[in-house]
Design brief:
Layout lengths: L6 H7 L6 E6 L3 E6 L7 H6 L5 E4 L4 E4 L4 H12 L3 H5 L5 H7 L4 H13 L3 H19 L7 H15 L1 H12 L4 H11 L2 H8 L4 E4 L2 E4 L8 H20 L2 H45 L1 H18 L6 H11 L4 H22 L3 H15 L4 H11 L1 H19 L24 H26 L8
Antiparallel strand pairs: 1-2, 2-4, 3-4, 5-6
Helix pairs in contact: 1-3, 6-9, 7-8, 9-10, 9-12, 10-12, 10-13, 12-13, 13-14, 13-15, 14-16, 14-19, 16-17, 16-18, 16-19, 16-20, 17-18, 18-19, 19-20
Length: 461
């Protein structure tokens, strides 16, 4: 049973168990896909004890719970009868969504990105955690010449070396195609044939006399996602017209034979180039934008999180880490997160309301360890001004980070706890210390502004 959270009231507010088509959860949110939106009472959801906020997505009502979400999810599944295996799959029927949610293409895009990347986040975060500790040990003299340490390094890099396979499996669920056919297409794209040609100095090859660029797709992001999107349409088309008795052989065979060459000829090279340009553009912005780049990104990042559009940066960050070994963005987005913690700390200092003080203290601590949704939706957004002050703190910390060209070397949630992800490069201790200094700046600025300018009586707290 979820502690102090009446899950039965959540079921009732989403229209009853008959109205629940699917349910899933992430780190802090219960995500419910309703059959009929008209039956969902969002105002009633917001009044339920333990519910920190409600986000209306294109296809889901996202109920923000916080750290207790796993227990809430288990009880929710038990009460509604939703199949738990299916509930873990947050993927959406993109075609149906586009047909039914006209005018919400941007929202659908970001939710689709989230649906593809969220399932593989544990693998990315797990290997990122290992990589962070590897950076720490290497800073103190550990070397890959030591067999045991070298094995651990190889394990930590596995997710990036074979990232396309993870993306293929996840994208296949999102785009509703056979997972194993998708993985086979991925395997064809990552064939040793291409790496062998590259080793021999071959830059272009031909198929039916049509030349295409030879690319090593290991560690790439966009090519495999768009390859599976293309393959899903091919598979559906073939499945529609091939007679039943022949489907089991001809549909997968023709899907692989049609989608893979088209990808190698067109989709793959274009999206690979696009990924390089996006990553290069972000690098350019932070390398030459100076204080301005971090000031703007650090200032708006929390708003991006509220709108859900921060998911759009996930492919770019993954591409940057996989190809160049670092990114400039995480120190800045981390400053925005810590700014939220600072504002909540200011609320804790100034508020006279015991409940709010308790919520603010626990949420601030969680944000310092990388979990920001409780502080954003449970404290700062409802209070108004603290969210603005948190954004200002994030802008100041971000400006500091971009001025000194600070970097993150692994994928992960930037926070005080994950300091190891900033240890890398020629001077790992310096880079890490400076990132932590940026976080402190963000925290202090947000806390001071909140204490000075936020009035509890304005928020009725």
């Amino acid at each position: 049973m979820a502690k102090q959270i009446p899950v039965s009231q959540i079921v009732q507010a989403v229209g009853g168990k008959e109205n629940v088509a699917q349910a899933a959860h992430c780190a802090t949110r219960l995500r419910v896909t309703p059959r009929d939106w008209a039956k969902v009472d969002e105002e009633a959801l917001k009044q339920i004890p333990g519910v920190l906020g409600v986000v209306h997505g294109a296809t889901q009502v996202q109920i923000i719970i916080g750290a207790e979400v796993n227990n809430v999810y288990k009880e929710f599944v038990a009460l509604t009868g939703v199949d738990e295996e299916a509930a873990i799959d947050e993927n959406l029927d993109l075609k149906q969504d586009l047909a039914n949610k006209k005018g919400k293409l941007l929202t659908t895009f970001f939710e689709t990105v989230a649906a593809i990347f969220n399932p593989i986040v544990p693998a990315l975060a797990g290997c990122g955690f290992l990589s962070a500790f590897i950076c720490i040990f290497m800073a103190f003299g550990a070397s890959t010449s030591q067999p045991t340490f070298n094995v651990i390094v190889a394990i930590s890099m596995a997710v990036f070396t074979f990232l396309p396979f993870l993306l293929a499996a996840s994208a296949a669920k999102v785009f509703k195609m056979n997972q194993f056919v998708a993985l086979t297409i991925c395997a064809a794209m990552m064939s040793t044939t291409w790496s062998g040609l590259i080793a021999d100095g071959v830059e272009t090859y031909t198929f039916l006399g049509i030349p295409f660029r030879v690319i090593d797709y290991s560690s790439s992001v966009l090519p495999i996602v768009f390859a599976i999107l293309l393959a899903s349409y091919v598979e559906r088309f073939l499945d529609k017209y091939i007679p039943g008795a022949l489907k089991i052989i001809l549909v997968p065979a023709l899907t692989i034979l049609i989608a893979t060459p088209i990808t190698l000829l067109t989709v793959g090279p274009f999206t690979y180039w696009l990924g390089e340009e996006l990553a290069g553009g972000v690098n350019w912005l932070f390398e030459y934008g100076g204080v301005f780049a971090g000031l703007v990104y650090g200032g708006i990042y929390s708003a991006m999180v509220v709108l859900g559009i921060h998911h759009g940066m996930v492919p770019v960050l993954t591409q940057m880490i996989a190809t160049q070994g670092f990114n400039y963005v995480s120190p800045t987005s981390g400053s925005a997160n810590i700014g939220q913690a600072g504002a909540a700390f200011g609320v804790w200092l100034k508020s006279k309301n015991k409940t709010l003080k308790g919520n603010a203290a626990s949420a601030a601590f969680a944000a310092c360890t990388g979990i920001t949704e409780p502080v954003v939706y449970g404290v700062n957004v409802p209070l108004g001004k603290p969210f603005l002050f948190a954004s200002i703190g994030g802008a100041c910390g971000g400006a500091f980070a971009s001025f000194f060209h600070l970097k993150a070397y692994v994928i992960g949630g930037p926070s005080f706890l994950s300091f190891g992800m900033f240890m890398g490069g020629e001077n790992p201790m310096y880079n890490c210390a400076m990132v932590m200094a940026g976080f402190v700046i963000a925290f202090v600025v947000a806390a001071v502004l909140t204490v000075l300018f936020w009035k509890p009586e304005e928020s009725k707290q």
